[in-house]
Automatic annotation (TrEMBL):
Residues 219-423 form the O-methyltransferase C-terminal domain. Keywords: Methyltransferase, S-adenosyl-L-methionine, Transferase. It comes from Musa troglodytarum (fe'i banana). Residues 104-196 form the O-methyltransferase dimerisation domain. This is Caffeic acid. Gene3D superfamilies: Vaccinia Virus protein VP39 (3.40.50.150), Winged helix-like DNA-binding domain superfamily/Winged helix DNA-binding domain (1.10.10.10). InterPro entries: COMT-like, COMT_C, COMT_dimerisation, SAM-dependent_MTases_sf, WH-like_DNA-bd_sf, WH_DNA-bd_sf. GO terms for biological process: methylation. It comes from the Eukaryota.
Length: 441
């Protein structure tokens, strides 16, 4: 039997089994997916493979593309791509749709700024606390605000109306006074993640941090950074973002609260799907912030002694946790020794050269057969117009302007690991574009 090629919406699959056959023992094969090249080393179940990114993908070994007739999905994909000439030849309906989309794009700042104000005013919390299925009018919501502004209810109504257009809240209408429609607003599923949960965290601090004046200001330097080089944040403030945190207590507190909340959410997901902490004795969290993530890990795995390692101005804000020791220092100089090192959302802060230096310091701090556990966002190979893929590229552009860092594909992470001296590499998806990756010494 000869290998054949499957082209699906997830990429090219070089498969050793005929369609419909129960898989048998087979040689490793290559998958080219949106996240990179993967050597499939073992069949776990029919249709499920255990894979790791390919060390040296050999495109020449792939079979020739399928001959016509093409799969209907591929035909649809090619038709949707079109040519530049075809893009300019629109029907009146298509042209109107494109024009409306252009208007939405140039006015896009209205949505995040309205959401920020809604969070600060606690509008979503007021709606959620009203109970499941509850519907509140703008007057109902505004009556719970500390204001005497006679226009508050009208302004709240217009804000919630915009949020409803993006399914952030729901909106229904019923007859009101003088024959006017009365809009009432309710909670939608996303409200669960924008209001405080039972653990006291939500995504709201990330919104408040990302739209803070300090964060908005440096975006005005993006054009200059492209033409002249440099990092937008540094151009705006004359220092790196981490240096700035040490000079602005208000912003540093906002940053730490953002990291605490976002970190707690993803760490909870990590602990649900990842078993790599079971055999850990001493865990150093490099760039661990105030220690919230490490505390969650050590609370679930009581055998672990935790060392939270970060810069002095960060450690100064860290609360005391049982089983966790706070240590200040510079990870680019050295890293505390342990059998396992943990880094969450650290590598994306830095360019490849800086990451290489940091990873080599981690390699030196680990014993033989020690491991580095990395939690990072992972980019697909190509952009696609869907919620998940868009979010990954949003993250990447934010890292570029904020820190001069970058999000990476799995192949790029593996290249960094090999260059630093690590020999093993495995990866598992967690949630929200985030993967846990093991580098083994």
């Amino acid at each position: 039997m000869h290998p054949f090629l499957i082209l699906s919406r997830f990429g090219h699959f070089d498969v050793e089994e005929e369609e419909g056959e129960e898989p048998s023992a087979m040689e490793p094969f290559l998958i080219l997916s949106r996240f990179g090249f993967f050597d499939v080393m073992e069949t776990v179940e029919w249709g499920i493979w255990r894979a790791s990114p390919a060390t040296k993908p050999n495109l020449s070994s792939l079979p020739a593309p399928l001959p016509p007739p093409l799969h209907p999905f591929l035909l649809k994909l090619l038709e949707s791509m079109g040519s530049n000439t075809e893009v300019l030849q629109l029907s009146p309906e298509e042209d109107e749709e494109a024009r409306l989309y252009a208007v939405q794009l140039v006015m896009a700042a209205a949505l995040p700024m309205t959401l920020k104000a809604a969070i600060e005013l606690r509008l979503l919390e007021i709606i959620v606390k009203a109970g499941p299925g509850a519907k509140l009018s703008a007057v109902d919501v505004a009556s719970q605000l500390p204001t005497q502004n006679p226009q508050a209810a009208d302004m709240v109504d217009r804000m919630l109306r915009l949020l409803a257009a993006y399914r952030i809240v729901s909106c229904t209408a019923e007859p009101g006074a003088a024959g006017q429609l009365l809009r009432k607003y309710g909670a939608t599923p996303v409200c669960k993640h924008l209001t405080v949960n039972e653990d006291g965290v939500s995504m709201a601090p990330l919104c408040l941090f990302g739209l803070d004046k300090v964060m908005i200001n440096f975006w005005y330097y993006l054009k200059d950074a492209v033409l002249e080089g440099g990092v937008c944040f540094h151009k705006a403030y004359g220092m790196t973002a981490f240096e700035y945190n040490g000079t602005d207590p208000r912003f540093n507190k906002l940053f730490n609260e953002c990291m605490r909340s976002h970190s707690s959410i993803i760490t909870e997901k990590l602990l649900d799907v990842y078993c790599g902490f079971d055999d850990v004795k001493v865990l150093v969290d490099v760039g661990g912030g105030t220690g919230a993530a490490l505390h969650m890990i050590t609370s679930r795995h009581l055998q672990i002694k935790g060392i939270n390692f970060d810069l002095p101005h960060v450690i100064s804000e860290a609360p005391s946790f049982p089983g966790v020791e706070h240590v200040s220092g510079d990870m680019f100089v050295s890293v505390p020794q342990s059998d396992t090192i943990f880094m969450k959302w650290i590598l994306h802060d830095w360019n490849d050269e800086q990451c290489s230096k940091l990873l080599k310091n981690c390699w030196k701090a680990l014993p033989e057969k020690g491991k580095l556990i990395v939690v990072e966002y992972v980019l697909p190979l190509l952009p696609e117009p869907n919620l998940n893929i868009r979010g990954a590229f949003h993250l990447d552009i934010n890292m570029m302007v904020f820190l001069g860092g970058k999000e990476r594909t799995l192949n790029e992470f593996q290249a960094l690991a090999l260059e630093a001296g690590f020999s093993g590499f495995t990866s598992t998806y967690i949630s929200m574009h985030t993967w846990v990756i093991e580098f083994k010494k």
